[in-house]
Amino acid sequence: MLNPYILLGPSVAPILGAGVTSVSVLLTALISRHFFKSYSFSGFGYLLGLPVGFAFLGASFILELASVLFVADPALHPAFFWVQMSLQSEALALIALSYCYKSSPHPAEGRVGRGVLVAMLPLVMVAIPFIVPTSVLIAQPYFDYAALADLSFYMRLFNLAVIAYIFKSTIVSLVRAANIRLLYVPAAFALLWLEQYSLVIAYFDNSVVAFIGSAFARIAGLALFAYVMHSVTSRRKLEIEARKAA
Amino acid sequence: MKQEKRHKLQLFYEILCAIEEDVIHNEVARPTHIQHFTRLSYDKMMNHFEELEEKGMIHRVSGLVAITAKGKKFIEQYDQLISLIESVGL
């Protein structure tokens, strides 16, 4: 089984897939737009990973749905699935890159070994989602379902590690700022981690419950993130208006 | 105490806020007051004034400085940017 939507059956999978995908894409577009506005205003290079990452994440959800809709096509179904897996991992790696570049020390401040690690780690993180699937395709230049299913498991492990890194970075910021309002973002990433973990469970057990749980976790995580974006901008607008009125 | 290097956007923000603040307290904004608020050298501040004037965020009349609507919009956008960056833990 490549795409876990298949567990739901041919009549339910496209309908539920379309619903979950449209909500997820809408939320990722909203988040990406907020970050893109911030990036275009400031030009801070480290911010670019966030709008591009969330845009890639939205695109990966569309490809996931395409993989469900073309389930009977022996070429398109695995092709869409493969591109979706790569794109999703790449998206998470790009989001992590923003946190990585922001928290990395100035080269002069750390040791040389640490400096090299800090420089290499983002490159490795971004390269893995492309190199691993491509190497599988080069080794076997046709879509081998079993190999692709195994690959999806390794890619999800990569996703789990990357989200865990982002989660750790957000928790560190939360502790530094000692502001409970900052708890929402780590919670959102924890939900996205739970989504990937549930998909790993679904991969091993073919569990419908785990898969539906993963869809809920994804939507809840993205909705929480979008809520943070919206509340920050609207709260700030209110504060500015209050300051003007005073 | 050594002061942390400030980003150009942050400098613009501090200058524009200083102008607003000075206008609120003294009804006019004077370069010397702004220099005091922003802790910049006079030459550097004048260079930033020129750049801000080119961008249409301030205008200068007979030695006094005033903030434009574009300058006020910049303050709002910078405020939102900082809140957003802080809220996502960056």
Describe this structure in words.
The complex is a heterodimer of chains A (246) and B (90). By secondary structure, chain A is mainly α. Chain A has one domain (4-245): Rhopdopsin 7-helix transmembrane proteins (Up-down Bundle), CATH 1.20.1070. Helices cover 81% and strands 0% of the residues of chain A. Chain A has seven helices and no strands. The longest helix of chain A has 38 residues, at 208-245. Chain A is globular, with a radius of gyration of 19 Å. Chain B is mainly alpha-helical and 90 residues long. Chain B has a single domain, classed as Winged helix-like DNA-binding domain superfamily/Winged helix DNA-binding domain (Arc Repressor Mutant, subunit A), CATH 1.10.10.10. Helices cover 66% and strands 9% of the residues of chain B. Chain B is built from four helices and two strands; from the N terminus they run αααββα. In chain B, helix 1 (8-26) crosses helix 2 and helix 1 crosses helix 4 (69-87). Chain B starts with 7 loop residues before the first helix and ends with a helix.
